[in-house]
Design goal:
Helix 6 links the parallel strand 5 and strand 6. The protein is an alpha/beta fold. It is globular and about 55 Å long. It has a domain of about 300 residues: Zn peptidases (Aminopeptidase), CATH 3.40.630.10. The chain has 10 helices and 10 strands. The protein is about 25% helix and about 15% strand. The structure holds zinc ion. The site of zinc ion has 5 residues, from loops.
Length: about 450
């Protein structure tokens, strides 16, 4: 989950943007056919133990906070790929299960006036979504676009042609740069009163070919980890349900604080969702063959500005037009009383589409997001898909705990019974998305479309 403060720029862009490739979708799918996936058995002790083992592995200190392009994140990627292989998913990346994301550590150019702004995510022109689909948010600053342009201008391209489409991202990782939007002073720390010198930043390159042109010392890589459960219906197998999470987190304190925990393990954010993606894949693989194809994606660099998902959308491993639904799983490690407590979850942007009500109809323990003022719909990778017109939401049980984005987001705070129950619900949800009718945006609530003209 991305911090809200970092979204001053994002807030305007969230409901945006860019070149939309969305086409209107029918509001119902083909006539209902019998589901081909069997329903998921109630969780057993061994399901729970497996959830705990996966969670402890991903949130382990050896993963070093899983920062974008760091050795710890690479270790996590290899772990996820090996689990996908073990489950029996088909590889969905360009390097088996890995989709390599080319990055460069760039040296910023000092801006005139000395302010060291954060390089930010590239955005297209903003559109406005009608108020009935929006959480009640304060007025947005119109300064975002120029701030972004100014920030981008401060980043020197490493080679001609390499920076055109790259999302300049607040990076972290190998060089220890921990620029997190709007936050000076390092990850999780108090804002530093000392003016900061311009820092090196990770920038996404358009392709691996561009990456080859970058000096070796500046080359970095990260990877999305993608596995596929192919559909079996002759027609519907060409439709895709994407189940995603982000497995990156916030690095380590450098230098470490003596005698104190210095690793941002991100047990809840979002090791928990990443474990869920693996478990949903495993449970569905055992349940038979889905009608639609299901793509399981553990994304990199969400905390650094949805780097992995943005790259994937720019370099999809199949036409985006085939995706009929997206479900992200974020921060399900602790129960949320506003969702109904243990085993219950909420869906971001519930009121925007038919997905939530559809899933509820199937008996899945899911409610609308009770904290619309937090803009959760726009704080996870799902929104990158939604901006392309794909019905995509995030399932979460984040209860605004105080360990959010702190070194104390540790595995000892995870409620494994709750998490296992939510994973069971999420697997049932994906089963219905894969075999049942397609969800659709409610009229006027598709973030990729301009709002209807005012009467
Ligand atoms: Zn987060």
């Amino acid at each position: 989950m991305i911090i809200r403060l970092s979204l001053a720029g994002m807030a305007a862009a969230v409901f945006a943007t860019g070149v939309s490739v969305a086409t209107p979708r029918p509001s119902v799918g083909r006539p209902a056919m019998a589901d081909t996936l069997k329903s998921i058995p109630k969780p057993s002790k061994s399901d729970r133990d497996r959830v705990e083992w996966l969670e402890r592995s991903l949130a382990h200190d050896s993963m070093e906070g899983r920062a974008l392009a760091s050795p710890g994140e690479h270790r996590a990627a290899r772990f996820l790929a090996s689990e996908m292989k073990r489950i029996g998913l088909k590889p969905g990346g360009d390097d088996k299960y890995l989709q390599r994301v080319p990055l460069a550590m760039m040296v910023p150019v000092a801006p005139p006036g000395g302010r060291s702004g954060n390089a930010t995510f590239t955005r297209g022109p903003a559109t406005v979504t009608p108020p009935e689909c929006l959480p009640k948010a304060p007025e947005r600053s119109p300064a975002t676009a120029s701030d972004t342009a100014a920030s981008r201008a401060r980043v020197a391209p490493p080679a001609a042609g390499a920076s055109g489409r790259g999302a300049a991202t607040p990076g972290s990782g190998a060089a220890g740069a921990t620029g997190r939007g709007g936050r000076a002073g390092g990850v999780g720390g108090a804002p530093s009163p000392v003016a900061q010198a311009p820092r090196a930043r990770l920038v996404t390159l358009p392709s691996m070919k561009d990456w080859d042109t970058v000096p070796k010392a500046e080359q970095r890589t990260a990877a999305n980890v993608i596995g596929i459960l192919p559909g079996r219906d002759p027609v519907l197998k060409n439709e895709i349900v994407v189940v995603l999470s982000h497995y990156d987190h916030l690095n380590m304190r450098t230098p470490p604080t003596p005698g104190a925990d210095s690793i941002f393990n991100g047990a809840d954010d979002d090791a928990a969702g990443t474990v869920a993606v693996l478990e949903i894949a495993r449970l569905l693989k055992k349940a038979g063959k889905p009608k639609r194809t299901i793509v399981f994606a553990n994304m990199t660099g969400e905390e650094a500005g949805m780097v992995g998902t943005t790259f994937w959308i720019g370099h999809p491993t199949f036409p985006l037009s085939q995706i009929v639904a997206g479900l992200e799983i974020e921060m399900i490690g602790r129960p949320d009383s506003l969702a109904g407590g243990p085993g219950k979850a909420w869906l971001t942007g519930y009121e925007r589409s038919t997905m939530g009500d559809m899933l509820k109809q199937y008996g899945i323990a899911i409610v609308p997001d009770r904290r619309p003022e937090q803009s959760f719909f726009s704080r996870s990778d799902n929104v990158a898909l939604a901006r392309r017109g794909i019905v995509a939401h995030t399932l979460s049980t984040f209860n605004l705990h105080a360990d959010y984005h702190r070194v104390t987001d540790d595995v000892d705070k995870i409620d494994f019974d709750h998490m296992t129950a939510v994973i069971h619900s999420a697997a049932e949800a994906v089963r219905h998305l894969a075999d049942g009718p397609k969800p659709a945006w409610h009229p006027g609530c598709d973030p990729s479309q301009p709002p209807p003209a005012k009467l």
